[in-house]
Amino acid sequence: MADSRQQVFVVDDDEGVVKSLKRLLNASGFAVETFTSPLSFLNAPPPNGPSCVVLDLSMPDMDGISVHKAIVVRDWPCGVVILTGHGDIPSSVETMKLGAVDFLTKPVDEDDLVKAVQEALSRQEQAFELKAHYEDLKNRFEPLTARESEVMELIVNGRLNKQIAGALGISEKTVKAHRAKVMQKTGSRSLASLVRLYFELQNSGGADQNPPA
Amino acid sequence: MSQPFSYLSLTHGAVAGACLLIALMHVMLLARSARTNQRVVNNITVATMALAAGAATLFELEKALATDVDVFLAGLYGEAISAFVLLVAVLVFTRSYFELAVDSLFVAAMSVWIASNIYQIGLFPESFYTDVHDLLFRETPWGERYAKLDATVSGFKYFADFGSLLVFAYTIKATISGIRRDQSDSAIIVGGALVGFMLVAGTLVPLDDEGLVSFTMPIGLPFLAIVAALTYQLIDDRIQISAVRLEVEQLRRNSLAGEIAAGLMHELRQPLTSMLSNAQAARRFLAQDRPDLEEVRDALDDVVSEDKRAAGIISGLRTFLKQEALETSEFDLNSSVRHVSRMLAGEFKTSGTRVALSLHPTPVPIDGSDVQIEQVLINLALNSLRALREQDRGDRAIRFTTMIIDGAAAFSVSDSGPGIPSDLHDRLFEPFMSGNEDGLGMGLAICRRIVDSHEGTICVEDSELGGARFAVILPLAEAKNV
Fold this sequence. Notes:
The complex is a heterodimer.
Chain A: E1 7-11, H1 15-27, E2 31-35, H2 38-43, E3 51-56, H3 64-74, E4 78-84, H4 89-98, E5 102-105, H5 110-141, H6 146-156, H7 161-168, H8 172-185, H9 191-203
Parallel strand pairs in A: 1-2, 1-3, 3-4, 4-5
Helix pairs in contact in A: 3-4, 5-9, 6-8, 7-8
Chain B: H1 7-35, H2 41-64, H3 69-97, H4 104-122, E1 129-139, E2 145-153, H5 157-180, H6 184-209, H7 220-287, H8 293-321, E3 329-332, H9 333-343, H10 345-350, E4 354-358, E5 365-368, H11 370-390, E6 397-405, E7 408-415, H12 443-453, E8 457-462, E9 468-475, H13 477-481
Parallel strand pairs in B: 4-6
Antiparallel strand pairs in B: 1-2, 3-5, 6-7, 7-9, 8-9
């Protein structure tokens, strides 16, 4: 996996189609892995970084929409580009609702395909970065003890050390000690940066949510 | 005495002729109905009615023109027999047309009518007239003379009249139930004609008997009207049936054409996708600084093979759609199998499939199209290959077998694939019966069609290799010539 190229999966039950798409995407500079059965794709190890899957809508053992749903449920960092034989509107609506990047009709033109794959990958990368950022924020605030958290909340709400000491019924010296711990654990060099980190974390909704794909 | 032109002869003759014509029509319809396994009772009874009505008319003419009592009585006798047959036919027709069960009124009408007629015809003429005097001659309004019998009517005649009244009542009842059962249009025509014209006949005869009208109307005329109405309805029914059948056939064809078009579209999309992507990939490879010509060559090879696949789909469909008049000749089944296994050697090799040929030691002569039989072999082998690819399990094997059993040639293609569920065995050879979704489902349908045209049979069973085994039995060349 030392491949620096971006990872694209192709899932289609037709071997000829799979082979040709792999060749085309390879020629366009992607690392391509192919599957002729949706189940073998879902049973394979999950992608470990931002990736994209080019998914045929109609396959014998499982249709593309079910595969797409499985990807969403498993929260794989994998953008979906749907390929279909017949551009039927109901399934295109459904896949778009699930967050598919594009819905392409076979035979697909290289420009459309490459553009859709790039779009899917860049969205995944953004999402991935965002997620990593939230993860980092969460990691900074997590080690705070209950008392430190209380102190931190009062700090970011603009209270002075004296007020905090009064509110919590502790000495100003202890407040200062907690304050130093908070600044150290969250890696904040100033009050302003602590406040910024804190509100970013609040806005991320706890960073547990799946960022918009 | 110069004989003036006889209008009675003309009218009676014309009515009888028309009756005969209608009877003939029904005989012809009957022949067709019998061929298409339709109900023939209706045509038989209407033909009988028409013939009886025609005969009754002629006998009545005989009566009218009689110059002595014996001739008149002979005419009356014939007329009685005709009327008997006529009403029996009316009863049977009514029941059959309205598809009624045999009920008590039917039995009563039939038995009273038959009993009274056996008596009347058996004891003729005493059953009609107790006291025969002589002929009376009357004149029609246009001055033509006709004969009436001067006699005392037997009381028993009323028994026969009662029988005909029951027949009349039955037709009314049948008509009503027919209208109720939503056959309204045809019930009104059929029932209305039966009831209406029997009423006309039933009132005219006594009026004439009593001398209240001074001309004799052909008794066949109301019955001719009945028969004509029935004929109209029976033909109309038939036209409707054939129109419906035509429509169904058209629909079936349209949907088959639609299905074929949809399947073809879907099936061709795959090779088209592959060809386009391969060609565009090749172009991209060539645009690179140091083009990888190996990749370009592979891409072009795939374009060629996908194009061939598309062509195969189209020609396979063509084979299925129209039975091409291919040259037939005597050929050796063994050499066909060898030829096909050589043709597919590449496919077997790339998929890692072991191929075994167990061929009959001497040539197996077949009379037919070697191209078509090889097509069957190729289709079966490709099916097996597809099945083998589906399973990842190591050993992939295909065996072709030829043999001569009981004076017939047989060949089979067996594989070690996953096999075919037995509940699919029967439907497998129908068009659009595809195991893989992108297939047109025509392969096995084509096989069966070809095998059928060679007067052979094809079937599927479990294979000794663990998968499916398709076996074809064909007549040997010598056996066929005998």
